[in-house]
Amino acid sequence: MSMSETLELVSANRSFGGWHKRYRHYSRALDCDMEFAVYLPPQAESERVPLLWWLSGLTCNDENFMQKAGAQRVAAELGIAIVCPDTSPRGTDLPGEHDSYDLGSGAGFYVNATQAPWKSNYRMYDYIIEELPSVVRQHFPVNGRESISGHSMGGHGALILALRHPGRFSSVSAFSPIVNPMNCPWGQKAFTSYLGDDPSSWRQYDACELVANGASRQRLFIDQGEADQFLEEQLKPERLEAVCEEHDHPLTLRRQPGYDHSYFFIASFIEDHLRYHAEHLMKR
């Protein structure tokens, strides 16, 4: 058994009749040890179950969603497993990796970096779309039906992964996603560092650009808080709304009055998202 196929159990907690477990493994894509979390509903003890991927935002790791979103109760009812990867490589000690919250550690942006010093480790796109799914399929009782969701930077990740791989995910949703990273400070900083100065190399990682290019016809389901402190400068959902309308791309964008960018917002609407994904995951 190769190193990448070996999992080390970090912790296990009983939750709503199922199990929340954390694992450590060596990632070839990222060339470092990585941790991820999985929630296995009670049904997983006797049958293979569908899977929801959750991608977290800046500064987060695998623990934020599992501890704060309150997703396990509904996931247990619906019989859906949830996998939460980390948001970046860890322990690589690259120059500048820990200088700011929005670049480097905790800020992988779900891209494959092409620029030094990032390109050898910061390959989160390959990790999420290829390597970790292979590990999960090998070690857990999942049935091959997958959906994807995420928050902020992770919402960006969920959207681009689904748009670039039509048919891979039964459904896609996002909370407060960075929909147009090419044209916001967070995205411009990360893309310049990871991908270089040529914006043409950025387009493959921008949901607005992917919709405009007709990458997919899959419906996008998004919740956005109207009191989000990052709404105007970083998130700009109206840009995705406009490009979806222009290209007749299915979009459900719910603006939620009074809600901010925090996990209080996610916890308030995660049940809607889980039930939305269950409808698609259970279709035959």
UniProtKB/TrEMBL annotation:
Gene3D superfamilies: alpha/beta hydrolase. It catalyses: S-formylglutathione + H2O = formate + glutathione + H(+). The keyword Hydrolase applies. Keywords: Hydrolase, Serine esterase. It comes from the Bacteria. InterPro entries: AB_hydrolase_fold (IPR029058), Esterase-like (IPR000801), S-formylglutathione_hydrol (IPR014186). Pfam families: Esterase. Its EC number is 3.1.2.12. One of its GO terms (molecular function) is S-formylglutathione hydrolase activity. The keyword Hydrolase applies. It is an enzyme of class 3 (hydrolase). SUPFAM superfamilies: alpha/beta-Hydrolases. PANTHER family: S-FORMYLGLUTATHIONE HYDROLASE, S-FORMYLGLUTATHIONE HYDROLASE YEIG. Serine hydrolase involved in the detoxification of formaldehyde. Belongs to the esterase D family. This is S-formylglutathione hydrolase.
